[in-house]
Amino acid sequence: MTKTxxxxxxxxxxxxxxxxxxxxxxxxxxxxxxxxxxxxDAKIMFVGEAPGRNExxxxxxxxxxxxxxxxxxxxxxxxxxxxxxxxNIVKDRxxxxxxxxxxxIEVYGPFLDQQIEIIKPKVIVALGRYAMxxxxxxxxxxxxxxxxxxxxxxxxxAIAPWKDARGAPVLIDIVTLYHPCVAVYNPNNLDKxxxxxxxxxxxxxxxx
Length: 208
Ligand code: URA
Description:
Elements: H1 3-15, H2 23-28, E1 37-38, E2 44-48, H3 53-58, H4 65-76, E3 85-88, H5 102-119, E4 123-127, H6 128-138, H7 148-151, E5 154-163, E6 169-177, H8 182-185, H9 190-197, H10 201-204
Parallel strand pairs: 2-3, 2-4, 4-6
Antiparallel strand pairs: 1-3, 5-6
Helix pairs in contact: 1-5, 4-9
This protein binds uracil (URA).
């Protein structure tokens, strides 16, 4: 199976996931599951929280107000959506954009794990505290977890669960950033986000 086929299989599985606490809400509203978008060969993978209304209506991640902020930030560090992969921990919209529950994160987390294994990125950028908590725990960095107000703009190194072509261990960077929605609620935060995003410049030119 190609990487794209593997992603499509994940989309099908989530679309039919009747056991999800968000399945009924999705189907009664004619929403889509949002599995992610971008290059399946990306060096940089962005992980957000959960789709909002615009995302659930279109099936595309970060296409609403937070997405507009994200585009400004990507542009600031000269990254295009085509060269990265963007997804969320929770793949269905929680009602009224409430925070995801621990159970929802438990249900959808394994799909994110599969996507990380398919893409094998060099860097995972966790947007906001939920993505940060999930990704850092997954990569054995749980003991270094801090509130996002302290962790924003930092990079942590971890050992990836895959090996390189010669069977040697692979290092992966986890970058923790504020969620772009903080600049939707308060546009004065945009400059802070732009300053933090500069940490991604060093990854842009790396070869995979
Ligand atoms: N917020 C997220 O975390 N993800 C999206 O796709 C949109 C808004």
